[in-house]
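It is worth pausing here to work through a concrete case rather than discussing structure prediction in the abstract. The textbook approach is simple: state the sequence, then state the predicted structure, then interpret. We follow exactly that order.
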Amino acid sequence: MADAGRYAELLAYLGERPQTEVEQSPMLALLSSIAHSRLGRLDLGQQWAMVALSRARVQGDRRLELRALNVCGAIALERGGIDDATYFFTRAQEEATEDNDMATAGRCANNLGIIANMQGDYRRAIGAYTRAIDAYQKVGYDRGIVESQHNLAITYREQGQLDHAMYAANEALGAAERLGDRGLRAQALAGLAEIQVARGEADLAIQEAERALAVHRELQDEVLETEDQRILAVAVGLAGKTREAEGLLREVIDRATKHERPLLVANAQRDLANMLALAGDGAGAKQVAQAARATFERLGARVEIDKLDALLAMRTPGAGPLAVSNQGAARRVPDVSVRGRKEAR
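Step two, the predicted structure:
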């Protein structure tokens, strides 16, 4: 159920078991952590991750201990604790490599790539994703390969290498379809939509974002549904429907705040600031941009800070281009899952 993204069903299944059984099993505790965090309940996700880590250590289960460390890092990253996340991922990667646990080493490399991407260190990000793919290939973990390909496409897109980005995104989409994984396919569609926005293909981007959103809504994955809505809003704005796009982005900000996703909040605020600037609302754009900048600064997202500084320095409210959404699916892909996000968990 975790692999298929059926987190609500997974929690319902775990809820039918005695709590003492879940608490005593590092695997069940870790599954509970992943499900709660994917559904936006990060406090519960963190609590269960620590339970899983403690039980794995008591039982001497090294693989689950390292996976629990990776999940702790993914949750820290979701909450904006980039230093804590880096610590957890680096430690787990080093120990997993020593233990020849290539699946966990791949997850950690993928997640360190996300952090490098946030910081604008694209060369380091590409290297990390490449190492993750290599590690996954050694153990035949196809889902992990797809997730890192998806993240690789994001990094290419953010550098303006749209042909490379489109190739990587299509590779991820094709592999997700071969695996028959609807949730993974939806993530790939969302990534494709962001590239189409960057290429100015508003109609295609709207189509793919709506398809991704529909699947994540059906899977009751509220966090990824909210991310899809952000991408859809940017595409709608590109199509000239500014008022509709603004409403969608404000809803994203509210929902992402509720889910404790500071990076998603800041991304949506950045997109909204650009739209308001284009619409001539300089004061509104400045207010929203400053809020986004504060979060990006805390996260060390240097590229985003530079974009917002340029926007804030504009003398003419509507003078700047609409910034293409940056982190989009990469937040989607820390990997916290036991199976191996994007963020890899």
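Step three, interpretation. The two ends are 14 Å apart (CA to CA). The chain has a mean pLDDT of 88.
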